[in-house]
Amino acid sequence: TPRPDPLGRMYQQADIPIKGRITDEGGLGLAGVTVSIKGTTRGTTTNANGEYTLNAPETATLIYSFVGYASQEIAVGNRSTIDVQLLPDTRTLNEVQVVSVGYGEQKRRDVTGAIGSVDIRTIQNVPIQTADQALQGRIAGVDVQSNSGVPGNGVKVNVRGTGTINNSDPLYVIDGFYPGSINNINPNDIASIDVLKDASATAIYGVLGANGVVIVTTKRAKAGKPTITLDSYYGSQSAIKFLPLLGTRDFATVSNNAKDNGTADNNSSAWLSGRPGNILQVGSERVPSLANLDNLPLYDAYDSTRRGQRIDTDWQRAVYRAAPLRNINLTVAGGSENARILASVGYLKQDGIVQGSDFERISARINGDVTYKRLKIGSTIYFAQENRLQNIGGTSGTTASITKASPALAIYNLNPKYTLGFNGNERSRDGQDAGNPLRDLIINDNRNLAYTGYGTAFLEYEFIPGLKYRLNTGVNLYLGTTTNYNPVYYSSSYDFRAPGQNSLYQNDYRSVGWLVENTVSYEKRIDKHYFTVLGGYVARSENRTYFEAQKLGFPDGDRIRVADAGGTVTLYNGNNGQTRQVGLLGRINYEYNDRYLLTVNVRRDGSSRFARDYRYGVFPSASLGWRVSEEPFMKNRIPALSELKLRAGWGQIGNQNIGDYRYQQTININARYLFGQNYVSGGGTVSDAATANLKWETTAQTNVGLDFGFFSNRLSGSIDLYDKVTSDILLQAPIEASTGIDGRPTLNVGRVKNQGLELAAQYQQNSGGIDWSLGGNISFVNNRVLSLNLNGDQTAFLPGGADNSNSNRFLTRAAVGQPVGVFYGLVVDRIIQNNSDLYYANAADGNSASTYGGGLRPGDIKYKDLNGDGIINDADQTVIGSPIPKFTYGFYGRAGYRGFDVQVQFNGVYGSQIYNAARYWTEGMQRNFNYDANTLNRWVSETNPGNGKVPRANSNDANNGQVSNRYIEDGSFLRLRNLTVGYNFPAAIRSKLGNMSNLRVYATATNLLTFTHYTGYDPEIGSGYRQDPNAGDPSYGSNLNRNIDNANYPVARSFLAGIQLAF
Amino acid sequence: TNPNQLSVGTFFTSENDAINATNSIYAALQQEDTYKRKYFFLFDLLSDDIRGNDPLYADGQTLTAYSFNASSDTVLSLWRGLYRGIQRSNFVLDNLVRLPASATTKRLAAEAQFLRALYYFDLVVNYGGVPLQLKTFSTESGGKERATPAAVWTQIETDLKAAEAALPEAYTGNDLGRATRLSAKALLGKSYLFQKKFTEAAGKLKELVDYATANPTKLGLMPDYSDNFVETNAAGEYVEFNRESLFEVSFAGQDRTGGTGNWGNDGTGIGEGTFRAIEYGITAFQNTSPSTAIVAAYPDNDLRKRLVMFGPGDTWYPEKKATPYPRTDWQHRKYSNLTPGGTGDDIGQYQGSSINIRVIRYADVLLMYAEALNQQGTTFSPEAVAAVNQVRARVKLPALTASTGAQLFQSIINERRLELSFEQCRREDIVRWGIARDVLGTKFVVGKHELLPIPQNEIDLNARLTQNPGY
Fold first, then answer.
1. Is residue B423 part of a domain?
2. Is B264 an interface residue toward A (CB < 8 Å)?
């Protein structure tokens, strides 16, 4: 015991050296066990043999702790050697793990619904840039695909199949709040992610929960000594692959061939007569003949004074780049039992692998908690600034242009006449469409600056033990400004933006929401009965406003870029919208004897998105659980079995995921007309189609599952089977043009069924000094449209999914009996090889004089006459592929040894198809865009028939480019998404470096390997759809746009190195 | 309640609302689907007046080659644009009854009926029998079957007769451009002619010829042929809505009202220009050029030849160069913003041209009148010859010497081609005369290409629609 000295000071008792060895149940030494002195921050860890040495006072108590083992506390006494055998922790992960269930938490072992959780260690030790990446491949039944590789762009998340044809994004709940997306928050702040998958779990969210609920909780401080954590990484990203596009010599050959065939096909002799052989003609200069081209010296692609001569530009190399990625994050946390605070700041800068696409985020968070007697008060404040440079024209703008740009065009123009020095868009045929993809990336300045944040506060008061009232309120804010500045330029006499035509477009968007939730809960254990009851009232509101304007005519030199400086207003628009929602909710959880579990939910919701009479609905659910392993008859029969729980549930939930006011027919006053000498006279007409009796869509879902654990839960997992039927699906259905209506009316159009099987398992062990775990999940889903209510006609279908070639040409459909968004088109039979083959093809209807498809020639594709009527037309179309995988899977592993750790994560999809629409251009050989190397295998003549798969080149083609299985490809892939190797410095070194409690360095490679047969940039297409989630109106039928690849911005491969340290 | 827009329930409460709603019917003429862009491409490319050049959009190439199918974007565009106007007409006609009857409401109803007939005219001529939409939009508007061509024609005649009875003879000031009684008579006469009701056609068109004789300042040929395709003539006079014009689609161009002249299906009246000038233009995209056939068809003594085209020897000023640049080939001049010898190359700078597109003009009426008289077929009509000669006299061509009906018919065919070249009349003419196969060659399939396909999109969405033969 310390004794006071004469001055009253306490003497520290002298330390004595203590050593020892820690072993596991088999007697092997355990490495990395933490040995700490209770009540202090002093301690050490064991070496590879399980040995440790430590100086401690005699009066101290030592704590021995290690993951997966029960901690032990041992008083030192007068011993100098303390050996300890640690025993596995029989309390399982499931018992201690807590999951968010919405309006509360539950122990994992008591859960009766299907709820998946992300193992948070996998986010903590792996660098990710947006929070939704944390979901990828981690949870069975949660399908996450990148929409594109655009930095800061989101992902497409589908929970349990394609429940609706409409936007099927799940509901995101962050700290009890609904900010619309988890994309804007700093992933370093995340403490847990739970995904509610089945209806018995999501029904507590009523009209919002039909597509699943993702609940994110951010980190909060614990009582104790303040901790400071710093996490930073830096790396480089690059394109995973380039397409084999042609150089000028081959391009000219194919292009000339296409044009010659097109001219020969066209009966109009006058066609093209003006400029023969001018494929490579630029300006008024002509290209030498091909033979001469070969003899010319190869000119620098950067010297376009030689334009039209032998220039060989590789646009992929010109536009893609190695792009840096850096991140730094600092968190400070600490406090007492009564008051705790966590503050974090983060900075992320991610340049895109395509020039002109950058993303930057600065974020700050303060989470505070105060406890005073029976009162708890807490607050969460998060604010971020996001800055995007977006000159790339959307996910398939520039990246598609790169594949189309002519290799015969020079990148730069050294002729001083061309003020900007870029030489795109010369007068080659079609040049104007692809132009010089680099020019817009460099000269334009298109930016989006967003301020986003939310603040929430809660108050919880416990009246008597178990009876709590909780008030949860918050506001969220999104302020976004888009500014697009397009300067004056001069590329050629055909391609320029004249002085006075430079423009500034600005769009200010504001979204403000509030939330008030009052809940009362009561928790009571009486003998073997344990129950909790929850009741509450919630209300929320969201207001959105935008204003946009554009002006032309900025001062020469493009120096002043504010609206004031512009000359002419060319655009001004604005509107606002409001969504309000109220709900009453109730839930009972009942547990008997730790074995029998029951959960009943009910919620009544009202939504302003529907007309008065259709506004309110009730969403009930119930689920049961039976912890079989707790039964006496099981307990000793299978000793290895540590956990077995059966679950069954049913519920109904709603989806209101449509725009506001879709039930109300409105007037468009912008349809004005000019009378007299350009007098603009007012307008007013029905602009849009409305449906007065619109109601929310409803999903009824049944789920049965079991959770298991073996060997003290070292092996654990779950199996779930579900059946999910979504009715009254809300969709902005396309309507015939002959109704005269441009907008698509929102309708309750049909029913879709999803049946699925989900398996997840993981194993973890710590022995022989190695701490390792392996896990994996696989999800099978069967998706089918049960009925569609269109014009009362059951044979009708919903067409959708246009590609970039023609916005009116539908590629996909939702049809009864088929999965949502199947590809629909003709089936290729063969390439017609010669005239006698053509004769037989034409004579399919018994008339050899007839032709189909506008007159075929040898070298063209003959499609299959599926209905056998001798004519190939749209009646011969059939289902040619499905974007929905047969199964998706992910697996991961982690191992630690002597401070080293390794993590790998794979994910994949199997059995989906992709419509590679980019090949419509690169292999279509219709237009004077660059071509894929595959076109060198085209049919050229009877004696040079190519590989029998690629038809002839024809600039006047109306047959070979029809929607068919020609461009359908296998979308299966397996991707090594992440490989991380790290090293944790031992305490001995850490203490020398300033008493750090953690110091880890690591290196990570992302998207290192992809196994796929897909020939495009990236098999991970998503829906290609991503609007700002705050922008309100979800776009039409995003699930009809799945897996259509318009040469979308591909995801990058990156190599990163990082450091994590804590004091 | 939606704070952004008026709703149907609260809109039609004043005459001003009714006027605005009627204006919106006209606005459908100004959109990309119609006269702003697709209309001239579709009908010109399907005729023998034009050839497509290299930069022409892919769907346009299939039109010149007659290899288009039901998925053609342009074919859908026109269909959609026309029905958009029809729906807007129906909206006006259904809601006018909510207002107390007045001279204005009667006039607005007549305007709506004229425009509805104009839209249905292009539908029935080019697609055959089409769904008859006569009520304002509701979710029941979908799923309609095709009406017979006769039923569509009957509706057109009914609407035009009503319009003729109620429309005023002329407007002034900021109402110039609205449909007049004369517009209705001209379109009704044209409708009779297209149905081969020659007697009714001749009768109706004669009313216009007589009116012109009695009121030469209100209706008649302009002295200068070019006045029909420019905004301001060489003398600096504003020549839109002139006495030769019976109906035109009004355009302002971005330079006039400050809009962007963008490519969208705009129809907002702000900066609303037609892309005709830039798409065909000599200094611009040159998507099409006059065909060798039309160049050859103009005799050298025909003044119109160099008024509709720039040809070898003509000079112009590309890229604002100081020295004139001589042409060596034939390119478009009609509706072009460019004046030879002038300095304006607006076409390169402004996407939207402000020149109004003339839909029906008096020269067309004279030629239709001549044709109707001649095709009545009983006796040779000197009056018909006189009508044609009136058109020829303006461009200093000698009078016709035809002495038989057959000879005169050939002359009318020729005269219509040369007078109305590049005005989207040729395709409809050669089809109704049954000479399309002779003119266009084997790419025109008899029994198929007389009609356009019903757009595949439309059939996909409405299983009750049947396709036209051959598609």
1. no
2. no
